[in-house]
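Re: folding output
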Amino acid sequence: MDTDPTAGASAPGAGRDPGPDAGGAGRRFEPDLRAMTRITLHPIASPMPLGFFTVAIASVMTGCLQLGVLGPADRQAVALCVLPAFALQLVVSVLAFGARDVIAATLMGTFAGSWLAYALVMGSGAPGGPRVLGVFNLAFVCFGALMAAVTRPKRALWLVLVASLPRWAATGLGGITGAEWLTRTAGGLGILVALVAGYAAFALMLEDVRGEEVLPLGRTGPAHHAVEGDLAVQLRNLERQAGVRRTL
C-alpha cells in the first residue's frame, strides 16, 4: 500500500508549567503527547508503471539512435522526444517519496536527471558531447551498482538496474573511445532494458487493477511483506519514518 504519512498533534494541556519540581525555574515542559498524536495516511496510486513505461520508451528511442536505425541527423529530434521523460520521471520520484519508498524515489529521480542531461547535450550539439556523456554513463554504472545492492527485494527495480548496468558501461566506453561496436552494443542493450522495463510496468499495472499478482515480479523480504502483509505490517515503526520523526 502506497501511503503518505503526515503527523499532527493536539495537546490541550501543552505548555502548562508542571511546577517547580519539574526541572528548574523558568523552564516549561510539555506533557507526553504520544497518546494525543494522530498520524494520517493518504493512499495514492502507484506511480511505478508510469516510471517504467517512461524508461522503456526513452530507451527505445536512444537505442535506435545507437543502433543506426535513426541517423546522426535525427539526434536533435531524439533529444526532444526524450526530454519529456525527465518531467514524467521527476513526477514519479516526487510521488514515490510521498509514498515512503526512498529506493524507488531515488532511482526514478536519478533517471529523470539522466534524461535531462542526455536531451540537453544531444539536442544542443555541444562540443565533446559524446565523450562527456561517456563519462556521465560510467558514473551511472557506479551509482547503479550501489542501488542494485539494496534493491534486490524489489525485484522489478533490481531487474531494470541489472539490465541497465551493461548498457551504461557500453555507452560510456563507446562515448570515450569512439568505438562503433560498443555504441551498437549499447543500442541493443537499450532495447533489452526497454523490454524488461515494459514487462515490469505491465505486471505492476495488472497487479494494481486485479488486486493480486498476475505476472511474477519476484518480490522477497520486506517488499513481499509490504504487499502481502496486513495493515499492522504497513504501520510498523511508522513513528520513526521521515515526515513523522523530527529530523531526516
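--- second protein (sequence, then structure) ---
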Amino acid sequence: MRFQLVPAAYVILRRDDHVLLQLRRNTGYRDGFWATAAAGHVEEGETVVEAALREAREELDVVPTDLTPVTAMHRTGTREPIDQRVDFFFTCTRWSGTPRRIEEEKSAGIEWFALDALPENVVPHERFVFDRLRTGLPPIVEFGFDPRVSPA
C-alpha cells in the first residue's frame, strides 16, 4: 500500500489582528482546545477550495468572498498512518453572513482573539500558524517531524 495523506482545509476568519476560534468539544480530538473556527477534512471528489467553502458554511454559516492561501502544512503526530496529514490554511477577511456556531454538539463556543493574546490551549499545529500570521509563512511548512519539536 502506498503512503497516504489525510487532507484538510482551514479557513481563518480575520478582523484586523483578530482571528475567530472555536472551542472544541465532543469531537474526540483536542476537546477543550481552541481551534480554527472553520476547518475539516477534504471529502472524496472535492477540491480543497470547495472543502474550505463547505466548512465555513457548515460550521459558521458564512460564505467567504476572499479566500487567500496562507500555507500548506505537512504534519505528523504519532507517525501512524492516521496521523499523516496535509493541511491547507486560508485566511478570509470578507464574507457574507454573520459568523455563528452551527455545530453546537461539537463546539462549546466561538470567540474573536487578538493574535498576540491567544488562549494557552490552542491546537498546537494551528498555534504554529497563528503565531506566524503577522510575519508571514512560507508556502509549505512542516510540523511534528523534528523530534526536538513536540507535536503534542
